[in-house]
Amino acid sequence: MKLRYWTFILCSALWISSCSTDKDGMETEQQIISAEDESDSPGINNGDPAEESLYFPPVTSNEWEQYTLDELNWNPTEADNLSEYLQEKGTDAFLVLKNGRLAIEWYYGDFSQETKHTWNSAGKTLTALMVGIAQEESKLSIEDPVTSHLNEGWTNMELEKESAITIRNQLTMTTGLDYREDIFCYDPECLNFLNDPNDFWYYHNAPYTLLDQVISNATDTDFKEYYKTKIGDPIGMEGNWVKVGYNNLFFSNARSMGRFGLLILNKGDWNDVSVLSNKDYFDSMTNISQEMNPSYGYLWWLNGKESFRAPGSENLFEGSLIPSAPIDLIAGLGANDQKLYVVPSENLVVVRLGGDASENNLGPSSFDEGIWTRLNAVMNP
To answer: What residues contact residue 179 under an 8 Å CB cut-off, 6+ apart?
Structure first.
C-alpha cells in the first residue's frame, strides 16, 4: 500500500509552515509554565485540580489557562524522560490537557505553537462529528444508502449491491468493498464488490473519503465551509482541509487539535455552546459500532475492549488496543503516528504530532504503548 507515500504527502503541501520526519539533534522547547507570581497571573488556576470543572479557552484569543507539574503533583523527572523519548521518536508537538488546562506543551526542532501539521487519519474524527451534525439538522441519516447522496454508479457494482451500502457502513469500515488493490482510490473502477455490507471489517480509506461528498451534497454546502461553520469557528480551531492525491487531509497546529479533543471530552459541547446536541449519536460514535472490530466506533478507535483489528490486516488480535492506557480512552489515530487521545475518566486530552515513530502505520502502533507507559509514570509518581 506504499505507506511511505504518507511521508511524501506530509511535505508536499507547500503552504504548510513546517513539516519534518527526521529530528536528529533536536533541542526540546518545554513550555510547561513555571510557578511565577500567581496573584498577578489570571491564567494560573489556584484550586485543587481533582475538583476543577472543565475549562474552555477563549474562542477569539490565544490565552489558555495552565497548570504547573507541582500543582498536579506530577513527576518532573519522569516528564524529562517522556520528553526525551518523544524527541527520539521524531515528535514535533506534544500537548497534555488536564481539565481543559494546559499541563504540558512541548515543541521540538523548528516546530512552534503556530506551525501546522497534518492529522492524517486522525482527521477522520472530524468527519464523524460532521456526519452527526448533518444528521441532527435532518440533512441525512446514517441509515441512508450512499447512493441517495451520490450519483448512481459511484461504484463499479450493479445498482442493487451498490444501494445496499449505507453511510453507517462508511463510518464503521464495513462497506464490503474490495480493499485488496488500492485502499485510497475512490474512482468507480476501484470500488468493487468483495463482501456484503456488515459482513467484515477492514480499514478501507476510499469509502471514508467519499463521506466528504456525501456531506457536501446532503447539506448543499462545501465540505470545508461546513467544517468551518459547524466546528472550527464555534470552538476557535485554526486549520485547513487540503486535497493530496485521493486524500483530503486536515492540517492544524497542536492547540487546535487539543481544542477538538476538549470538545469531544465534553461530549460535543463547547462550554455553553452545543456543537452536537444529539448525545445518542455521540454515544454511538464513541462506542462499539459493530461486532467484527469491537475497538472501533464511528471512525474513532476505542481502548479497553477484548480484541481489535488493525489497518492493513485481516486478523483479529486479542487484548486491548493500548494496554497501558485507561480503558475508557478513545482516540483519533493517523498515519505516521499522529495521535489524539481523549480520556473522560481522567479529564485528559493528549496530542502528538510528528514523524513516523513505529515503522510505518495507518493508525494504532507500538508507539501508543510507549507514550502511555511513560505518561503514566509522569502522572502517577
So the answer is: 194, 202, 203, 204
